[in-house]
Amino acid sequence: MKFGLSARGPFGLTCRRCLHMGWLPTLLAAVLAFTLHLTIAPALGEQHAPGAASPWLVFPMVVASLTCAVTAAVFWPTFARGRPGQQWVERLQRGPLRGSGGAMAGALLAQWLLTVPLTTALALALGAPSSAVTHLQLQPEGQPVLAADRPPVSFTIRDPQPFTELRLRPLAGLPTSSLVPTIVEVFADGESLGTMPAPFAETRQLVRLPFSSRSMHRLELVHKAGTVPLVFVPGAVTLRAATAHWSLSNGLLAALLALLPSFVAMALASWCGLLAGLPTVIAVVASGLFVQTIVGLGPFEPTMLALMRGHWLATSAVFQPCAASLTVGSMAMILAMLLRRRVRR
Amino acid sequence: MNGRPWSGALAIGCLLVATALVPPNLRDVTEFAAWIARPLMLPFAWHSLQEANRGGDPLEAFARAQNLLRLLPQWSDGHSAFAYRFALSDDDRSGTDAERGARARTRLDLAMAWMESARERAGKHELDLLQGLAFLPEVAVRREPALAALLQPTGGAIKITDAWLAEAERLFPTAAVREQRTFFAPKLAAGLLAANDPANALEMLAAAIARSHDVRDQALATRWRQRLVEVSRWLAGDRTIDLTAVTADERFAILLPFLR
């Protein structure tokens, strides 16, 4: 009964409208993306690079987001100025946004429902791993440079779970004398984990050190030999956890995080819609989504990459960038509420 | 208003006649599509490649590089640079020598196959690709010594290098290309001697002696030829040869282990 009532409000009506309008474009985009993935896949022999297939996941995701957000803007009369039926809805609909908030929530639910099959089934079909593993990025305490005349670079690990591999990808500086690649020894809680298997001579050179599963609280990188100074910028030191998570839960979470660009775009559009007509509102939605998805501003791109690479999404490294997007979207909503009152007076 | 259907029909008719006169082939259509897609896709393809270099593994970066260079098929330097980067990447040093060698072999094969596929569109820059192909196996063996044993059945990295230099010489018969192969002779001879194939090593040295007559700098060629003759005669069994000059010449350092 409650569902029936809510289904007649802005939330339910917009959700159904978005699902109705969005399923076919999303399906077609997914089929096209998968076909292109199969036809113009890079030549890698029997190996797979699922991270490189992320554009084929992003494409239908963006189509679903764009369809839902534009449908909501076109469908709900208070989203833009001068829409047919706007005055009726302004009088009948309660709430500071006159139903725009509910319409946005409905559009977001529809998008989530449309994109869950993409982040689960399509991602697997594109080669994403069937399980997801936490990749914990470490930030150095104090100075991040490792050289012969510098103290060790140390990291504190607040996550107590067991890890099985360390990945280093530092920036390399100019050698202090004739070039001798730098050898790094790794200590966990004061105990040696071993020397990195390859010395470092190039910037962003990736070297992995596998070790038997163990948890740790403190990691130290010690300079053993070499003349190349190494700089451990954020993202240069990663610990791979031992425990694997189910990829389905990672897919559900990815679909949830992919709602953020739509939320921000629609929030900005509802703000603009107080003074602007529908074409401007649609332009704001489309450009907002473009900047956050294709251009890569915000958490969408790292989320899709992490999903395809099999990195577990429920980590602070993924959620931290979401805070900025949530703040922008929330601020736009609050401003829209305040301005709507002023415009009505 | 009445003219619109006629103009539409006329346009379709012209299109059909044009298609019949110059039937489009798949390659032209692909090139046209790439021409349109290039400015739209390139910034994102570059961004993706940088992201793969920052957070992905070498295989992902190589796949992204392939996607990028699909938009720039004539950029031979780009093909060489990304292929070298992938073939020489060694992020995973786990396992035995044989396992590491096998992984290096796979990377080398993939990188060389990709470079070879780019030759078709490289045009006048094909020579750069051929020279890149020639020296990649040798550099890869230096990076991963376990790879040498896997290449040995096909003559080793040096033999592969010589085959590609020969192909470069066949397609681009310039003095510079010929001389590059001529001066590569000690390395090839060392590779053959390491593979316990002295007969072919002697034959190859004889060919290099003959080719030295074509070198533009004849003073240099005369000294070079003299060293080659000394090495050749010593390998043929003449132990009266004085190898002092050969030993002092750094270009022949790779042959010294076989001249004792």
Keywords:
heterodimer, A: 345 residues, alpha+beta, Jelly Rolls, 2 domains, four-stranded antiparallel β-sheet, 11 strands, 50% helix, elongated, disordered N terminus, B: 260 residues, mainly alpha, 13 helices, 75% helix
What's a concise summary of this model?
Chain A has 345 residues and is of the alpha+beta class.
Description:
The complex is a heterodimer of chains A (345) and B (260). Chain A contains ten helices and eleven strands. Chain A is an alpha+beta fold. Chain A has two domains: 2-132 and 247-261 and 274-344, no CATH class; 139-234, Galactose-binding domain-like (Jelly Rolls, Sandwich), CATH 2.60.120. In chain A, the strands form three sheets. In chain A, strands 1-11-4-8 form a four-stranded antiparallel sheet. A four-stranded antiparallel sheet of chain A has the order 3-9-6-7, with no helix packed on it. In chain A, a hairpin with a 2-residue loop joins strand 6 (183-188) and strand 7 (191-195). The radius of gyration of chain A is 24 Å and the shape is elongated. By secondary structure, chain B is mostly helical. Chain B has a domain at 182-260. Chain B starts with a helix and ends in a 12-residue tail after the last helix. The radius of gyration of chain B is 25 Å and the shape is elongated. Chain B contains 13 helices and no strands.
